[in-house]
Amino acid sequence: MINKTAKRKVVTVGVFDFFHLGHLNVLEAAKEHGDYLIVAVHDDKLNLKGVEFLYSLEERMRFVKSIKCVDEVIPYERVDTLLPTIEFDVFAYGPDQNHQFFQKAFDWCSKNNKETVMLKRTEGISSTRLREIINKKEI
């Protein structure tokens, strides 16, 4: 018998420091792949891009939690060590999320029958691009 009350859980991850329309689009697209969206927000410990954070982890988690399509927000340090610790069905990720820890996460998903979905970027919008524009204006 099929359990009609079971929720299909989707997890996605990100820094979400310079929150913009592209982030919102990614979160909404991730939610389309399930009933329950878990968003893992990158902590302050492992900074792979070497960029100073504008907001603390707690502030970034609060921003993300306020988004209507988000059901749960959790912190994470490394995606490859996060995924084995949570219950989910689909791992939704962006095309720029491809460093070594993501490769390990994809391998884990494959071995554990977890679906992976690459989400599309919003053209012309990125945190890096927004930082460049602001720096040029010297606000």
Please provide a written account of the structure.
The chain has 139 residues and is α/β, with parallel strands linked by helices. The chain has one domain (9-137): HUPs (Rossmann fold, 3-Layer(aba) Sandwich). It contains 5 helices and 5 strands, in the order βαβαβαβαβα. A 5-stranded parallel sheet has the order 3-2-1-4-5, sandwiched between helices. The model has no long low-confidence stretch (mean pLDDT 87).
In short:
With 139 residues, the protein is α/β, with parallel strands linked by helices.
Lay out the secondary structure.
Blueprint: E1 9-14, H1 21-31, E2 36-42, H2 57-65, E3 72-76, H3 79-82, E4 90-93, H4 100-111, E5 115-118, H5 127-137
Parallel strand pairs: 1-2, 1-4, 2-3, 4-5
The low-confidence runs, each spanning 5 or more residues with pLDDT under 50, are: none
Number of domains: 1
The major β-sheet equals: 5 strands, parallel
Order of helices and strands: EHEHEHEHEH
Q: How many separate helices?
A: 5
Span of the ends, CA to CA: 60 Å
Q: What is the CATH topology? A: Rossmann fold
Shape descriptor reads globular
Tell me what portion of residues adopts beta-strand conformation: 15-25%
Structural class: alpha/beta
- Overall pLDDT confidence: 87
Helix content: 25-40%
CATH superfamily: HUPs
Please give the CATH class: Alpha Beta
Strand order of the largest sheet: 3-2-1-4-5
Count of individual beta strands: 5
